[in-house]
Amino acid sequence: MNQHITRTEHSAPARQFTVLLSPTRRGARLARLLATAHLGDWGIVCEPAAHIVAELAANAAAHGRVPGRDFRLSLTAHRDDLLRIEVTDTRGEQLPVVSAPDQHAESGRGLLIVEALADRWGIRVGPVPRKTVWAELDLAPRPFHRGAETHDPVNHVPALHDA
């Protein structure tokens, strides 16, 4: 497996970690393990980030795979209030689509999970032949408001939650 790692020191305003991984199930598993380890080293305990990395890496391995080309995982922690996760593959012509799968389907819910866990997410195309699926998590605690409106990613409608 080809691996290239780039790190900046903890004294930098933004902490970064980037690694190239093989587009296989093993590479996707390793992406989650490395992300969890680096976030822990940075003092960021964020279970949603591990799930997001797992989903985006699994998608890159399953749908973004091109023989002989790796996918890239990048984590950037801006100060202590924002975490950006990026997974880049070389299938820029094949963009992911969020859709609700059949209730008996065993796959197809990855982007629904990302949408539910991330504060923001999106897709950036290019440079050719690449695409990057990114997600951001606000790390600063937010006050809870009783009856706060949230987004229901399955039905794509706002839902009210009782406390």
How would you describe the overall organization of this protein?
The chain has 163 residues and is an alpha+beta fold. Helix content is 26%, strand content 30%. It contains 3 helices and 8 strands, in the order ββααββαββββ. The protein has helices at 25-41, 47-63, 110-117; strands at residues 5-7, 14-21, 71-78, 82-89, 120-125, 131-138, 149-152, 157-160. The strands form 2 sheets. Strands 1-2-3-4-6-5 form a 6-stranded antiparallel beta sheet, covered by helices on one side. The chain has a two-stranded antiparallel sheet with strand order 7-8. Strand 7 (149-152) and strand 8 (157-160) form a beta hairpin.
- Beta content comes to 25-35%
- Topology order in helix (H) and strand (E) letters: EEHHEEHEEEE
Number of alpha- plus pi-helical segments: 3
Structural class: alpha+beta
- Order of the strands making up the biggest sheet: 1-2-3-4-6-5
Biggest beta-sheet profile: 6 strands, antiparallel
Q: Which range best describes the helical content: under 10%, 10-25%, 25-40%, 40-55%, 55-70% or over 70%?
A: 25-40%
Broad shape: globular
Q: How many β-strands, per DSSP? A: 8
Given as residue ranges, the uncertain stretches (5+ residues, pLDDT < 50) are 6-12, 147-163
Radius of gyration: 16 Å
Taking the alpha carbons of the first and last residues, their distance comes to 48 Å
